[in-house]
Design brief:
It is a single chain. The longest helix has 48 residues. This protein is mainly α and 88 residues long. 83% of the residues lie in helices and 0% in strands.
């Protein structure tokens, strides 16, 4: 009985570790995507600002609307919600 309980505890710990690592990997992927999105919008804004006239205004409007579609990703919020293996 003690051996069975020890084995069950070990399986539970291994499962919690795997779930925690998998979730952390998803957070890291989301963080990478968020940085990529932010870099795109920053670079696009700089490039648009270098233009003149009506084209600049039209492109800035499009860029703002595009940003509205994506919103502002916040990977820190996901990290706050992440649980360590021992918290599972």
């Amino acid at each position: 009985m003690l051996e069975w309980k020890r084995q069950q505890d070990e399986e539970r710990r291994a499962k919690a570790l795997k779930e925690s690592r998998d979730e952390l990997q998803l957070i890291m992927d989301a963080w990478s995507r968020a940085r990529h999105i932010e870099e795109f919008f920053e670079r696009a804004r700089k490039d648009i600002e270098a233009r003149a006239g009506e084209e600049k205004a039209v492109l800035l409007e499009k860029l703002e609307r595009a940003r509205g579609i994506f919103g502002t990703p916040d990977p820190i919020q996901k990290l706050r919600a992440w649980r360590l293996p021992e918290e599972r």
